[in-house]
Amino acid sequence: MAQWQEVQGLANAYLEQVHRLYADAALPMVVRQCLAAWIEDQNWRQAAEPLSSSAARMLFHSLLALLGEHLGSPGLGDEDFMLKHNLRKARRDLQATFQERPEEFANLVANLLQEERRILRQGQAGGQATPAPSPAAESNPQSNREQQIQQRLAEFRTALQEAERAFRHLEEQQDAFDFCYKVHYLPGEERTSDPEYTRQMQALQARLQVLDRQRREVLAQLQQLLGRSETLRDFLLQELEAWRERQQRACMGAPGDTRLRPLETWFTELGQGLFQLLQLLRVLGELRVQLTYERDPLKAETPLLERRLKEQLVFLLQRAFVVEQQPSMPNASKRPLVLRTGSKFSVRARLLVCLHDLNHHMEAKIHIDREPPKIKGFRRFNILTSNSKTLEAGDNHNAREGLICDFQYLTLKEQKDSRTGKGSKGAGEGPLAVTEELHLITFTLAYSYRGLELELETSTLPFVIISNNNQLSSAWASILWFNMLSSDPKEQHFFSSPPPAPWSRLSEVLSWQFESVAERGLSEEHLLMLAEKLFGSKPSPESTLAWNKFSKDGASGFSFWAWLDGILGLLQEHLKQLWKDGLILGFVSRKKEKKLLKGKRTGTFLIRFSESILGGVTCTWVEHPESGPPAFRAVVPYTAAELASLALPDIIRDYQLLVEENIPENPLRFLYPDTPRDEAFGPYYSQRQDGNLTEQKKYLNRRLIRVSSRQANESWQTEEDLVAATENLETLQLQPHGLGTPQPRGLGTPQVTSGNLGLPQPSSAGTVLVTAASPASMQPAGLGTLQPGPRGLEPPQLLQGGSGGSELLQPGIGELDPQVVLQLVTSGQGMLQVGPGDAGMLQLVPGDAGMLQVGPGDAGMLQPVPGDAGMLQVGSGGAGMLQVGPGDAGMLQPVPGDAGMLQVGSGGAGMLQVGPGDAGMLQPVPGDAGMLLGPEAQRMLLGLGDLDQKPGSPDVPEFLQLLTEQELSSGTLGTLEVAELMPNMPETTAGGLQGLDSELEGSTVLLDPHDPFLPQPEDTTVPIVKSLFTGAADLPPLHIDASDFQ
Amino acid sequence: MGQRSGREERSKRLELALNETMKAEAEVQKNKEEAEEPKEKDQRTTLVFGVADLKNGAVGLYNVGQTCCLNSLLQVFLMNIRFTGILRRITVPPHAVQKKRNVPYQMLLLLEKMQRGKQKAVSPTDLTCCLSVHGVKLFVQYDAAQLFLTLWNLIKKQMKKLELVEELRYLYTICVQEHLACQKCSFETKRYSSMITLPLPLLDSNSYMLKTLEDCLQYFFQPEELTDQNMCFCEQCGRKTPFLQSMKLVHLPQTLTIHLKRFCFEKSAYIHKLSHYLPFPQDLDFNAVLTENQCEADDIKKAGWQYELFAVVAHSGSTSCGHYCAYIRSLTECKWYCFNDSEVCQVSWDDVKCTYGHSSLHWGETAYLLIYMKKCPQ
What we know:
The complex is a heterodimer of chains A (1046) and B (378). With 1046 residues, chain A is of the alpha/beta class. In chain A, the strands form 10 sheets. In chain A, strands 14, 15, 16, 17, 19 and 20 form a 6-stranded mixed sheet that branches. Chain A has a 6-stranded parallel sheet with strand order 25-27-29-31-33-35, with no helix packed on it. Chain A has a 6-stranded parallel sheet with strand order 26-28-30-32-34-36, with no helix packed on it. In chain A, helix 2 runs antiparallel to helix 8 (102-129) and helix 6 (53-72) packs antiparallel against helix 7. The longest helix of chain A is centred in the first third of the chain and has 57 residues, at 195-251. Chain B has 378 residues and is of the alpha+beta class. In chain B, the strands form 5 sheets. In chain B, strands 6, 11, 14, 15, 16, 17, 18 and 19 form an 8-stranded mixed sheet that branches. Residues 1-56 of chain B have low confidence and may be disordered. Chains A and B meet through helix 8, helix 11 and helix 13 of A and strand 16, strand 18 and helix 12 of B.
């Protein structure tokens, strides 16, 4: 827009300045207005210079002539009579004042224009500042800086335009001089005596003088421009540095804006300006080629300017090549920088200076560990798929606009080094663990634009390469530690001597973990508890934590980080909403907990994380007995396994404490500090399915609740006693819902067989609690070692520890009523044997049982949930359904029976042996196959999704035959894809499946787990049956019907 | 280009202003007492001429033949109202020839020219002609620190009024006490020296880069042992012995010029420029930088050692070819300007900070001379 127009658009305060400017100026505003465009087009400044009076004179007379023209123009009607008069007067005045001194007039106009520009700048800057009130601008330095950058960019553009204009004038001047020179300068002829020639020579000399000055002025202008662009460049680089920090923090889960858009715009604009300047310098150089003279300033200064400019451009471009997206696997966006061999990952780099020649393609390449650190045993990797790509300019419609190289679907493969014999995982061979080995991907780009060619380079943040999902947690710990503490983003040696973390820094990073997982960080109180846990009773912000203490297993059997990560996992899976809404107090020490609850009403409870087991959450409540100090009670922590079957709010709602002489009561009444339970948790209760009449006709409604019992003679007055006290088990409560069925016997006084089972170490202690409807069943044969009974189990250590001492847990033949669900919870190793019985349902919860043997019985359903059972043997019986949850059962052996359905969840079952029987269906459910995706373990037993087996189909035995023929030795069942086997074929009996375990590697191409077209474990849509109870209605084998009770 | 008196033999050398060595402390005392009076006058003249200099906005100077160095220094002189206050009181030489040859007079003319015309820049042709008479040639690249000394001495020499010379000296002279102590016997020598610029090395004795301006100052005033080939002759011992050389700050002037020795030459004749990052503060408190025994002045005097940055003469380019520009904070408007010959523009402190230098950029602007002004006591 023309300057005068812009001036008129200014705010009043600035317009006032303009009026003042013209009030005592010799140039009346009416003239300025009348000839606005023409005035702005002339180079008054140059005309004002002492040696160019002719130019000034010409301009002056042109102005007068134009004014005259204007006066005579028919466009001015009568109404403009005054205007005409004013113009005429102005013309007369100007002529009178400046006729003899046109240079002065030129200088006057030049100064007026300059002053106008100054007011304009002020006004525009002020105008921008007004909408944002100044205190806000101060409180927000970010936007302040943005404004500065915008303003400087605008100034830079203007100055560049001015420099270009000055250059054009210089060009014209040089042409004019050139012409005069060619016409008048005639060397060789003796004309020195000719006064006319001498005069012309002098004029020529004067012209050259002017030209020289003009050249110097343009150079000064460029110097100034370059100087300002350096400040601008520093501003941009500071912003980029701030972005880098934000990105690094975001990698650790911190919230923050990591968009590159504004930076890209700024870098591009500055880059464009600098390239324009470079062009200007080049044409300036051409002027010198056309005409040069002694002490030509162009000769000395242009190369200097060009070098300075090029250095600046190169510097800018090098910084402008950034990794926009750090390497990450697609399904682990919250934990980037951890890559697994054989898994896809992506990484993207961007050139912020978005300038490229359309006909020239720039090639980007990636390299992994281009300069590998000299660490013994450092693993080397190859990037599969192509490592080079053309830098593409995404179009405007694409979200990925700009100059990017986007590498997707990359995978890593370890280089097998035969010399060191480091074939397999290689962990422990070098000084660094696998999860402490840091790798880098470097991007290189052959940049070329407008004749500037250079190689740009940028590197990702260091990442960790794992081969198995169970390394994920500790790999993430390494990433956190590095990004928190390393000052050099390329420091691959970091873990050779990892520095300790100051608590102030670490606490912030830990808080981010909670924030990113469950949208709520850690409070001051949480952090204080953690600090006390780490540093003792008097933590200070200066306390530091060593890497080993953070990540390496301590006395408790797991590291601080493993403990926290267990809680994070639990939150992610089951407690996200509760944590987000602040219902979980979470990190409270026992001491603090007592202090908090002491003054509260009986039944006030809080939810906190277990400190002794991985990923456990528990409730503690206070009771004020009639006499004596208040008592604090807590239940054994619930872990993901329990919460999978019943959500925490429901547990709290239905939790009952059984006292021998009392009716069951829920001791959890008020959530700390004093919110009534149902008010606090009401929104989270799951909907009960009562009232569905059609369903009721077929089944009884069931509800799983948690009950604890307290012995009459027991006195847990102190906290220590409480800790030693038992977790008490599951129960089943059947609500017949008025179907006319007999009252379930003994519900009023259900007996709990086991008492104190190993609470000091709940993680390893086996806890077996069998609740049954009839007290008679509570005396199962062979429970000698457990010594169940009202007294509770005396020696919890019997089942503890997993020392390998094979314990025998054997609920004997019981007359369990068919409606009873029998749930066995075990964690200790040894052997768990469930004798034949008529349990309606048998559910085995977690554990590391060496062997799990279910004797023949008529169990309606057998469901071992996760665990590491060495062997699972299901005896013959009329089990309605056998369902093995995810676990690492060494061997699963259903003995001949009449199982209606056998369902095996994921896990690394060593061996699956189905004995002769009449099992209706064998259905392995896909599970978290990632658990065992080690190079060896990663085998898919049956990728049968597409085989579509039908029961009874003749293909099945053939298939099994095929599998058997593979000469399979021992191995692990990696993933069991959906398969329906009909084991009642003659071929499959007698160990027909014995050879399922493994070495399937070469068996079929189709089953290659790396094949991207095969459904990956993560992608499988088949849902994991998490709980028997949720899906119970869909499982026909379990019939609990009124008729069964008779 | 490149100042030849830079690092030699890795020991500090003072750059003495010519004829500026005073032998006795008493003289300094006297000097100081005398100085009290001009100070009063100085303030008065500020009042008188301050109004005139209000117009002293930023006017450029045309480059008349590789004079960017001279132009920058002239701006530094002429933007300093304390200096112009002295300049305006000079006696005008009687004859035209003398007028032409008189540097202060020509500077005054230039100043008038800059303030009179409303032009964006003026041409310092007459002054450059005058200077070339005194050996400052055109079309020669100068080292700003050297040219500054030359100019200053020319101005001082050609001022006829003694009181003005005193004022000028008071305005610019730094006084230090050089202290040499023989390490073998107790022989000591003290010597008072005056300097116009404080030449600060940017590298320490192990050629490590010093981090900040404050570090450079501290290093400069740190005692140094002269051993081996640097040993001095001890009159008392009668032979060359190791000496401890130390320097104490006695007096700091109104206008303090600090010379950052960015041009450095190692053993060979090859000179290179140190372009690394060296930040300098806007406010400089010598009491916070120097320790008690690095100063030789009373507390009252030391309390006045509070400075704020007034100007930066920055150099871009290499040792063989380069360009000077000046960043000057207008004392009347309190705004920063950048002077690139005829181009003048208002800048901010951020632009000045750009002259800190950058280790990976060798052609950019780096501060070379820093001119600090004593803060007015509130």
